[in-house]
Amino acid sequence: MATNDVDMPDSVDADDPQAEPLMEAVDDPADADMNDTGVHAPITEAAEPQDKQQEEEDSMEGTHTWAVKDISTNREAKRFSPTFTIGGYPWRILLFPRGNRQGAGVVSAYLDCGEPSAQPNNWTRRATFKLQMLNQIDPSRTISKEAAHQFSPQANDWGFTAFATHAEIFQRGAGFVVDDTIQMCVVVKVDRPEDLYYDSKKATGYVGLKNQGATCYMNSLLQTLYNINYFRQAVYHMPTQEEEMPSTSIPLALQSTFYKLQFGDASVSTKDLTKSFGWDTMEGFMQHDVQELNRVLCDNLEEKMKNTKVQGAINHLFEGHTFNFVECINVEYKSTRKESYMDLQLDVKGCKNVYDSFVKYTEVEMLDGQNQYKAEGHGLQDARKGVLFDDFPPVLQLQLKRFEYDFQRDMMIKINDRYEFPDELDLDVDDGKFLSPDADRSVRNMYRLHSVLVHSGGVHGGHYYAYIRPNTSGKWLKFDDEKVYKESSKRAIDEQFGGEDETPPPAPGFTAPTLKLTKYSNAYMLVYIRESSWKDIMLEVSQDDIAEHVRSRLEAEKAEKERKKKEKQEAHLYTIIKVARDQDFHDQIGSTQFFDLVDHDKVEAFRVKKQTTLGEFKQMMAEKWNVPVDRQRLWTWATRQNRSIRPSSILEDKDDDTRVCDVREHPNGFARSLNQSELRLYLEIAPDGKPMRPFERDEFLLFLKLYDPVKESLSFLGSCFAKLHWKLQDLLPLLNSKAGFPEGTPLEVGEEIKFDPQVMVEKLHRQQTLHQAQLEHGDILLVQPVLSEEQQRGLKHPQAKDFLNYVKWRQTVHFKKLDNPKEEGLSLELSCKDTYEEVSSRLAAALTPPLDDPSKLRFSQQNNYTQQPKPQPLRFPHHELLLPDMLSQSQHYGQAADTLYYELLDLPLQELERLKTLKIAFHGEKAEEVGQHSVRLPKDSHVRELLSELRSLLPPAYSSRPLRLLEIYMSKIYKVFDDMDDIENINDAYWQLRAEAIPEDQLEVAEQDQLLYVYHCAPDQQAQVHNFGDPFLFRVSDTETLADIRPRIQKKLGIADEEFAKWKFAVICSLRPPDYLQDDDVIASKFLRSGNQYNAAPDSMYLGLEHIDTLPHRHRHHTNRLSHYEKPIKIYN
């Protein structure tokens, strides 16, 4: 299975846990036309009739809704919807009600292609889809996520591992589960087959930007800025140096990106640009805010433009000025100031259109009552405060406030309300009511819409794309990552207003209600250009605007790319011949090569036509290396059964007329490479300028290596011919001579046989014949001087075999601090046979200062996909764990990691893992938090021991007070722990743990009394009750009325009389409206008595204190796994 989080349903380890969709499939071009040859017609040609085009698009789109019954009682791990057909293809919804990862606490949802057996051979199709879990009470809270995918037999489903959390959908009254049924809906748009081969350049004249994973927000902004021609020209004119590299220079990287967009024919990579920002791979998979990136990027460029000929270009384009004033009503006093802005943040909520937003932006605020203005020399005064505009910039950037903080829900929400914006924006409307008294009224503030940046998705992620009108023709284009499409103005403008869509009517024979579903794709940023400035801003930009050295470099890159493309197209006509020589053996052996003779990827490669003969190829080598043909002899290589690769067979002079393509296919010992486009050869060169000596049938070729045990070095000695009847002692004089040793130096000689899976070196004896040693062409002899026992003392690797074993198993590992993973860290050369304890000891000794106890180290593996530490550290091994095992789980697509992260513990890891550490918030008498504590106890402890340990950390006043432990989530009490509950199963990562002293009136609760759950609450705009603040338990007797308990609650919480008088009290039960209480209502009679002294469960009934939340909002104590989307964006260079 394959996913886009978008994550893989099975056991494949994806990068970013529970990520939102990283990209969305592009829409079909609304105005695309095909000519008779099947090629997309140019943008200037007429489009297909609208009705015909719409009919084709509708046939490729469809919606299906699936009622998933028994959602809480059905124990099936995964469930499929009935198969449905959209675009002529079968589809199913695949649901994992309990997630497809253990302990995730989420619902996983995917779009599946149906039974594999029902698919044709080698099928593939691309589709954009939107998965929804319908909220059956409040459709505006429907969960919706979008993605796009190329479906195939290898990736036949795609979707979201963390589609929704159990906490949000199974909460009583949330509206997702009704009658134990959830409604899953999917909207699918299948790309037409020709879209798979769509050429943006041919169809539109423009190319797209490649998505690095979640960089669609950046792509949409870059396309917008690029298509503001004045901005593009300013970037081209930024000074850069010839020796600079795009990956380290933002101006050069941006120039390169823009140049390729303007003059290239294919989608452009942004990797050099993001590298120049100082971003690592992880940043490419993190969704950021396009508005934030716009400000950060423009600020960075403005700084880099200072003291250059384009200084002030950014301000010239985007800077406007506001007139801020405060004017006293009863005295003659007025304060004014002028401020600049680069963009305007406009309210969407409560506004129907852009004009309403400007009215709201400039409306006057009255400063009176407790909010009076302190006027210098006049004290506190009633005043009018407001803002008007001194001027608007040539390019007006409007940031629509689609996201805002909901104080009642204590969370960010997206506003998907309908919000209209015009094609032409007149900011002189109503006699210039938005302008200040000092504004220049001669400037006509009439603007034309240039760009609409769209966000599709929700708060925690989604997809960005842009509609842009890049020239005066009025044609709109959709820039969606790699693809660019022609679009109608209706789709670019009207369909991006947001609001609601109605579900399509059911198919004949089916009945289903028509629902209004929120449109999650809507305009997020608007760019307008002043009509009078349009020609100046949208000026012509040519190659002459970019520096010669940049143009030359990019043209060279383009030419190289074309050359490689041509090579690829003509690859079937050519073969690659890799020729190794003794010089390559000298260069590689002992430095990069230790086993066998050579790395064939590092030798000279010739690209020759397959029809070339060996004789012609020899002539090529003669010209290349100045080696006459009569001094050349070619050998083919053979891969032996033991996986060693050695020269094997001679290509004789009689083979000179043989074509190189036939050499590869020769049945009698010629090379048979697994890569059929490659041929590997060894070139033997006759010494001393002499012709090549004839080869005698009873001799064979040996290669010689020298090992120096003192220097621990390996080198290539050369080669020699030997005869089978020779004894080893007959070779010793030649070996001494080649090694440069005195004649008669005792030598130890062994044959290097193999290195995989184990190093094998077989010692040869002086009286042994070479035939008895079973030597043949290409064998390698390892030579070293004989050492006495005394000489061997102190040597790490006295024998060549020892050294080769060391080389085989050695690995350089990079260690980085877990709390500072970007820091350089340190590197150690270890052995793959090192155990966990040995690795810990080596690292402990290498730290500064050294760590006395290596057992206080804990390691975490690296996720190669994100280049970040994995969230779960390695546990202490209870069996032998070797270095490869510590690293192996970090592999990604065959790429082994070489990085471990470490942290220093305050006690040995093995001891720590026997303990449970819990973070507990201690609350005082007013239910307010007064402190945070970490308590560490053995895992088999109970809550009683936990509270006893906590008591020792509290002030003396609590030394004898009984305590209790509560489980809190979203300002509700979900559990009051029993003293004998085990602590091992308590989760403080998701829930907040709260401890408190038990009030005296709750120590002994009489049978007629009740302990009620009391929560602070407030209704939202949809009349849904939302909780906030600190909940608490409250004792009531069976006769107490609201009037009786009011003073007790006010005293407990310490609320002032004036504020407390505004509070309302209600009995709240899920799925029912609040039951507001009157002073004479008997409280206990409103609650059903349970067997537990803690009456009323958090998801059933509680006493609600309804009032405005005036307290400052804190971050929740539980971990939000989606919080990485809120990471601020930074450009480091």
User: What fraction, in percent, of the residue positions are helical?
Assistant: 10-25%
Biggest pleated sheet:
8 strands, mixed
* Gyration radius, in Å: 38 Å
Distinct helical segment count: 26
Number of DSSP E strands? 52
Strand content: 25-35%
Quick description:
With 1133 residues, the protein is α+β, with helices and mostly antiparallel strands.
Structural account:
The chain is 19% helix and 31% strand. The protein is α+β, with helices and mostly antiparallel strands and 1133 residues long. Strands 12, 17, 20, 21, 22, 23, 24 and 27 form an eight-stranded mixed β-sheet that branches. Strands 2, 3, 4, 5 and 8 form a five-stranded antiparallel β-sheet that branches. The chain has a five-stranded mixed β-sheet with strand order 29-28-32-30-31. Residues 1-58, 665-675, 890-894, 1091-1099 and 1113-1126 have low confidence and may be disordered. The chain has 26 helices and 52 strands. The protein is globular and about 120 Å long.
